[in-house]
Amino acid sequence: MIPSAVFSPDVIDRAAGTLLGAACGDALGVPYEFAPRLTEDRTPEMVGGGLGPYEPGEYSDDTQMAVCIAEALRDHDGPRSPEALEQTGRSFLTWFREGASDIGVQTARILKDTERALAEHGGGAAEAMTRRSERMFEEGERCAGNGSLMRTAPLALAHLDDREGLAESAARYSRLTHGDPLAAQACVLWCEAIRHSIVHGTYDGVRGGLDLLPPSVRGGWEARLDKAEKEPPSFFAPNGFVVSALQAAWSAIVHNPVDESSPDRYAAPVMAAVRAGDDTDTVAAIAGALVGARWGRSAIPASYLDAVHGWPGYRAAGLGELTEAILRRHTRHPA
To answer: Which residue in 59, 185, 286, 295 has the fewest CB atoms around it within 10 Å?
Structure first.
């Protein structure tokens, strides 16, 4: 365990809730992906199936790719070091070949083109991916899907005392597959929200992260958050677009206010994210990461933790150990 002299038990619990919260939200949303939207009287369950098909409690590409990032953070001191980025890129390619039970169209194109480029020219995977994703944006192709936002939550664990560094890392890891600046901006906002929730135990970081964005785009993002707080989660379906995915996740959270005494403080907003419909596993993974960071591992139902699992063999205990290893490597002084 991380020494309590460095982090309080509450901070450690919330840190553990981040990756576990994402994984459980992912597995809860898997059965309903692109299926008819659940009505309010139906309770989402980890029954498996979906597009995989998946086993009950099995998470999908959202968490599979997050694990690739988390393992690189565990193994390297500098999140933006060439070594950490290269390990992430190579892990994405391994996952693409061996473990991708589901994959977004944009991400699949980037990884397939990267494999071809490496076979023809050699070089580094991370740089090849980034060049391809940036070229896609420069050529006017649509490349602002939700595939980077769904996976970047682990970065917050490596930057608990460094919000500016986290913003740089979130944008850099987003650009591995998503060249549109909108995707990077969404990752910056959501990662800062997660970091703030872990350290301070509030959702104030969602809007508090606006100052980390270029001044020219802050007003637009503030208006998008306003819209999310006004409309229900289902308003933002379809939600394959990164902006709509973030809005759906935030809407699910703000429209299901809970307090520390509620036994449903994790489940209620994450279930609402599933009921938003469309890309249910991704929206629930995005929401679940932030809700888990706010309320901690202790708030996640035991039945979810018992069931959750996925590539390359993690269960809840392993995801918790991965979180602790990241904290140990990247802790410099008390938060």
So the answer is: 295
